């Protein structure tokens, strides 16, 4: 291939791949699906004080809708706005959020309204931006740069971006040598399901005993937990875990003898007592169902599946300990990149709970005055709007995290592209973390091998390669599961 042909291919590839595509697609996913998931998870409010003569009363939340960016002028005229107008007039480029709210009295709908609950800042050049789909000529008429990639917010006239962060993949098994004294190897799983985050640690001690830690349960013997999950047949356990390996069989024998419980109830009682609970069995069941591998289910029916997964984890852990192998956690298959969807989901979920608490309080206050307030009067829009703006303007996020957003670098076009493609690790820059800073083989083709800052952040701050694409998050897995079943994969 001659140079002119390769240059044309490269130019075409760069033009077809927007450098801010991951910011835009992640934001669009949050608006189109993420917001409704949050509403569905908090779908009902049950007031303590109810209208007189009503047995059951619920405030039901329905569909959430986000409009297009607009502005209310001093003369009460509402009209669409553009990013350039927001920059010049120091405005926030945001859109209204409308939520369907209904009252259910004894399971009958007595009132239903579309309620304005606040405004959310919009990413420039996304589907919800007024510039979406415009030609170069139309953009020039609106005084916009036709080459601008978008992917940022405009808060009080200032361009802000949410920095893409790198973290270990959730619900993924990582096995390595244990740094804690008295233990040889450990398997760690950062369980995450429906915004419930529960770190799990399964440790192999110097005396070959296996312990598991999750939630409030600390160093519970794994064999006791397996029996609590219904795996009471010891011969079956040995066969499933060892798969014929003598060394693993001996280790399992040691664990079964170490704390001998025969029945599922005895095991649950033992786990409950470790939490100093009077109702030991019920407490153990509650902790196991809610917090043990929540991504596999959070009810009694999922215990069998959780037990099978725990057996798989133990088998992998013991095999790695015998062969002296570790899972390479710096391999990029064990990492995930978090963009707008992850960060806005966390922020909106936190603020929306406060909005619901206020709505419940406003409703009950109205009932005390012997009147049923209309849905539009119990929701206040100021709190949601101001909290979203404040967090995006300052970078201060829920959970005490800071620096989530940054002022977009506009010194030159390459510096803007570099900033939009920046990825920062959640690891602290004060510690060595030598392996995390190294250039890994799996970085090639995904990250620039050269661009990283000097000093404490070296290797922890990277830049996505220009032609690299980030796969979409939370892609529907129905088709994949169907294909696996067609190939003969059977459910446990």
A few lines on this structure:
With 492 residues, the protein is α+β, with helices and mostly antiparallel strands.
Report on the structure:
By secondary structure, this protein is an alpha+beta fold. The protein has 2 domains: 14-166 and 336-463, Rna Polymerase Beta Subunit, Chain: C,domain 2 (Alpha-Beta Complex); 173-323, RNA polymerase Rpb2, domain 2 (Dna-directed Rna Polymerase Ii 140kd Polypeptide, Chain: B, domain 3, Alpha-Beta Complex). It is built from 16 helices and 18 strands. Strands 10-11-12-13-14 form a 5-stranded antiparallel beta sheet. Strands 1-2-5-6 form a 4-stranded antiparallel beta sheet. Helix 2 (21-41) runs parallel beside helix 11, helix 5 packs across helix 8 (264-274) and helix 8 crosses helix 9 (280-291). The chain is globular and about 80 Å long. The two termini are 52 Å apart. The mean pLDDT is 88.
Let me know the average pLDDT: 88
The largest beta-sheet arranges its strands as 10-11-12-13-14
In the CATH hierarchy, the third-tier topology of the largest domain is known as Rna Polymerase Beta Subunit, Chain: C,domain 2
| Global structural class | alpha+beta
Instruction: Give the domain tally.
Output: 2
Number of strands: 18
Give the termini separation: 52 Å
Low-confidence stretches: none
Going by CATH, the architecture of the largest domain would be Alpha-Beta Complex
CATH top-level class of the largest domain: Alpha Beta
Specify Rg, calculated over alpha carbons: 27 Å
Approximately what portion of the residues adopt beta-strand conformation? 15-25%
The count of helical stretches stands at: 16
